[in-house]
Specification:
Layout lengths: L22 E7 L4 E10 L2 E7 L2 H6 L7 E10 L4 E7 L2 H11 L11 E7 L6 E6 L7 H8 L1 E3 L1 H5 L5 E3 L8 H4 L12
Antiparallel strand pairs: 1-4, 1-6, 2-3, 2-4, 4-5, 6-7, 8-9
């Protein structure tokens, strides 16, 4: 008999944020971008972002240093099979998505997948962006997107813009991490 229940495996809670990994990162944009400006400050020995909707307010803030424009997208990340927020400050990626979204032959990027390839490290990091041919959104993606609520204002307040709701069985993501099927009790 094992200390842990048979078949138990530790679970990580789902992340609301997508980080580009080396190699290909396939996404489907699900909603209009959240556009703003950000800087990072050190507070309580931690790096903390400060986000602004307006560039002039960012510049006027005495704490602001190295202000960058961000384009944050609610995306389906094919690798994690989850709805996540992808915040991009890399101009090459921003321009590629913008140019395709404003091109009448491509248009709305919620209608096609995007592959962002990342190679190199540090200052040698390079990105390549490819758009895939338009196709209907997979039903699993649509269903997953219906299970979240987007609160864009939260992103500007350093909160989480993706609010996860309960699934069709009434179980939230947090509840799913707790094994309620075990009949074992713990005694001390």
């Amino acid at each position: 008999m094992s200390f842990y229940p048979q078949g138990y495996e530790p679970k990580d809670p789902p992340s609301d944020y997508m980080r580009l990994q080396p190699g290909e990162n396939r996404i489907r944009i699900l909603a209009n971008p959240i556009i703003g400006y950000e800087t990072w400050i050190d507070e309580d020995n931690k790096r903390k972002p400060i986000r602004y909707k307006d560039f002039n307010k960012a510049v006027a803030d005495p704490r602001a240093d190295k202000i960058k424009e961000f384009h944050a997208f609610i995306v389906w990340d094919y690798a994690s099979q989850d709805v996540q927020l992808l915040s991009l400050t890399q101009k090459t990626i921003q321009k590629a998505i913008f140019n395709h979204a404003t091109d009448p032959d491509w248009g709305d990027p919620t209608r096609y997948d995007i592959i962002i390839s990342k190679s190199g490290k540090g200052l040698e990091t390079e990105y390549n962006v490819k758009m895939k041919p338009s196709k209907p959104m997979d039903e699993a993606i649509t269903d997953a997107f219906k299970q979240v609520k987007i609160e864009t204002e939260e992103y500007f307040n350093n909160g989480h813009p993706i609010v996860r709701t309960k699934d069709e069985n009434g179980v939230s993501d947090e509840d799913a991490l707790i094994d309620t099927t075990s009949d074992q009790t713990i005694s001390f």
